[in-house]
UniProtKB/TrEMBL annotation:
Pfam families associated with the record: TetR_C_14, TetR_N
UniProt GO molecular function: DNA-binding transcription factor activity; transcription cis-regulatory region binding
Matches recorded under Gene3D superfamilies: Homeodomain-like, Tetracycline Repressor, domain 2
Start and end residues of each HTH tetR-type domain: 11-71
DNA-binding residue intervals: 34-53
UniProt xrefs under InterPro entries: Homeodomain-like_sf, HTH-type_TetR-like_transc_reg, HTH_TetR, MftR_C
Protein name: TetR family transcriptional regulator
Residue intervals passing through the bilayer: none
Organism listed in the record: Planotetraspora silvatica
UniProt entry keywords in alphabetical sequence: DNA-binding, Transcription, Transcription regulation
Length: 194
């Protein structure tokens, strides 16, 4: 969380850029919207846009959810084994999001699945998410974050989550994402019964 006035102003500018970009993408389409148009709508210069988002794709892909999730994983009671701790952390992290944030996340997910350039950046971002989850799980367990056990565990969690996200997008958010993710992690926790 931004604490100093400068950090709060930067966070507000970043949020404004992203909100204006998503609004323009919804109105005009991703490909038809330029960085210059986003900058103008955000009342900044194009060079300022690039100080906050290295590429147009990043305005869709970047968010603050990974740090929130990682903090929630670390915060879970020490007695919880890794998978119940991750499930509880996801529930707690989703609880922090407003309905508007979830709606924005759905729109961003739709763009991530439908726009090839955004899809590539999303896939690249998954490595950062995997590293963050591995670090949090390792911190809780005392294991090395690069160990095969931690990496396999995080891979299984991500493998369960991705189809939940795909279903959420395909169903246009009909079933809440937190429920879909919890259900998917529940299958994983139960040993993947079919």
């Amino acid at each position: 969380m931004a604490t100093s006035l400068r950090e709060r102003k930067k966070a507000k500018t970043r949020r404004t850029i992203q909100e204006q970009a998503l609004r323009l993408f919804a109105e005009r389409g991703y490909e038809a919207t330029t960085v210059e148009q986003i900058a103008e709508a955000s009342e900044i210069s194009p060079s300022t846009f690039f100080r906050y988002f290295p590429t147009k794709e990043d305005v869709v892909v970047q968010d603050d959810y990974d740090p929130l999730l990682i903090a929630e994983i670390v915060r879970q009671p020490a007695g919880l084994s890794p998978l119940p701790a991750v499930r509880a952390a996801f529930r707690a992290a989703f609880h922090e999001l407003s309905p508007e944030e979830l709606e924005q996340t759905l729109f961003r997910a739709k763009l991530s699945l439908s726009v090839p350039a955004v899809r590539v950046r999303t896939a690249e971002g998954l490595f950062t998410t995997i590293d963050g989850l591995a670090q949090a799980v390792a911190e809780r367990s005392g294991a090395d974050q690069d160990s095969p056990a931690v990496r396999t565990f995080v891979g299984a969690v991500m493998g369960a989550m991705l189809p939940a996200i795909f279903s959420w997008v395909e169903q246009d958010g009909a079933k809440p994402l937190p429920d879909l993710v919890d259900e998917a992690l529940g299958y994983l926790e139960a040993g993947l019964p079919i």
